[in-house]
Amino acid sequence: MKNVVEFCNITKYFPGVKALEDICFKVESGEVLAFMGENGAGKSTLLKILNGDYQATSGKYLINGEEKHFQQPSEAIEAGISVIYQERQILMDLSVAENVFLGRLPVGRFGKIDMKEAYRRTQEIIDDFGLSIKPTDMVKDLSIAYQQMVEIMKAYSRENLKLIAFDEPTASLSDAEIESLFRIIRKLRDEGKMIIYVSHRMKEIKEITDKIAIFKDGKYMGTYKTDEISEEELIKKMVGRDLGDIYNNLDRDKEIGDVLLEVKNLKSDYVKDVSFKLHKGEVLGFSGLVGAGRTETMRAIIGADKMTGGEVYLEGKKIHNKSPQEAMENGIVLVPEDRKTQGILANLGVGENITIGSLKKNSSKLGVLNRKLEREMEEKGIKDFKIKTPNAEKKIVELSGGNQQKAVVARWMATQPKVLILDEPTKGIDIGAKSEFYNMICQFAKQGLGVILISSELPEVMGLSDRIIVMKGRLISGEVTRDEATEENLLSLAMIGGKEDEK
């Protein structure tokens, strides 16, 4: 029998915000349906209604024509609906088998848990998936990719599984791991499962999905066959405008100033020997493969990791940051790659997330916080960075990823830095929000800041940077200008290396 999940005129209100308006779509057995839209389009809210985390304000949620009103995720799971979120929902100190059958471990005679049977069943699923792990392996010892596989195995092990949804599943995976995930998604599809796939990565959407449902500002814009709609059409429907070549349309700084930051022979436990210069008004890109040492170089500069050798000069003055706080006071700030664990303060509101780095600036000499100054800074940050929020008190975790990232950038820009380091600033952000960030970065450079951009997206680092430094094996393997940069020479320097790599 063919399974069908359908949303009919689903609307969802939060206090002061209409998150979804009259959403209608359906997904059927044996197909992979992509959810696409800008951050804040309503994709995550839809998944949470699907999963029973949220309840719709109005409309109908149907499974095989039967209306459902899930009050919690366990009810959705019992009906055959599973959602795999970006954040792992597994217990690290348990084995693979214990996680797969958590809450429903097989029981033998006299009501005793039969771990031998649990291991046997888990091994069958591992063999089905073609994975190189064991049922007895501790989940904490597995890679992120395999931890994700354990979550999928948990859903797959339920005999009634009808639909499985993936929320940005490849954010932390390598190319080889992505291909393994896709093989399993195709297996699930061929077995007649319904798959919902949420991602901003156009290449993946084109490779793995059959249809694409597009959402914009909480509204459903239509469903299209993947092989019948171009990338240009997709983007236009998502953002409501034709972005054209977003890199050529940027308002760049025509003149690069004097040397602002100079790093000489920097060494740490994670970086071998790094030297480079950053100029005022320059966007300096850092490219390289995962583990090349880009992030680790910046962590040593700001004092998050201890420097074991080398020197750092800011405007010709030698500095040695022993902590990120000291780096901030010296005018160097870092927007980290991991927004959720190192960027936002999840329990605080949007406004407090913006002002948390400026408590000293907003306080009297006696340390008394001036709430008027703080509120002015909150309002300025929200306005200047076009953060979509009903108010400054709104919990930051309730905003889209793009708006969370804007708040983190607003926080560090409020400290009036001289050097702004952006580590994968558009990770998990849609194409429309990326365009906003690109313009923002160019404006920062025009204001005279030195901007360091770490990005694994070659078009991004090539399109934004005035110069690009490539790292390999915790060393600088080469440097190219924007005019010289091609994907081929950047990849060559990242994989094979250059003169600097021969040290």
Give a description of the structure:
By secondary structure, the chain is α/β, with parallel strands linked by helices. It contains 17 helices and 20 strands. The protein has a six-stranded mixed β-sheet with strand order 6-7-8-3-9-10, with helices on both faces. Strand 14 (307-314) and strand 15 form a beta hairpin. It is globular. It starts with a strand and ends in an 8-residue tail after the last helix. The relative contact order is 0.11. The model is unreliable at 499-503 (pLDDT under 50).
Topology:
Layout: E1 4-14, E2 17-28, E3 32-36, H1 43-51, E4 58-63, E5 66-67, H2 73-78, E6 81-84, H3 96-100, H4 115-129, H5 144-156, E7 163-167, H6 175-190, E8 194-198, H7 202-208, E9 211-216, E10 219-225, H8 231-239, E11 259-268, E12 274-279, E13 283-288, H9 294-301, E14 307-314, E15 317-319, H10 324-330, E16 332-335, H11 339-343, H12 350-355, H13 371-384, H14 401-413, E17 419-423, H15 431-446, E18 450-454, H16 458-464, E19 467-472, E20 475-481, H17 487-495
Parallel strand pairs: 3-8, 3-9, 6-7, 7-8, 13-18, 13-19, 16-17, 17-18
Antiparallel strand pairs: 1-2, 1-4, 4-5, 9-10, 11-12, 11-14, 14-15, 19-20
Beta-strand content estimate: 15-25%
Q: Which spans of ≥5 residues are poorly predicted at pLDDT below 50?
A: 499-503
Spatial strand order of the main sheet: 6-7-8-3-9-10
Mean pLDDT over the full residue set: 87
Beta strands, count: 20
Query: Helical proportion?
Result: 25-40%
Whole-Å distance between the termini? 64 Å
Which term fits the overall shape?
A: globular
Q: What's the helix count?
A: 17
Largest sheet: 6 strands, mixed
Alpha carbon gyration radius = 25 Å
Which class best fits the helix and strand makeup?
A: alpha/beta
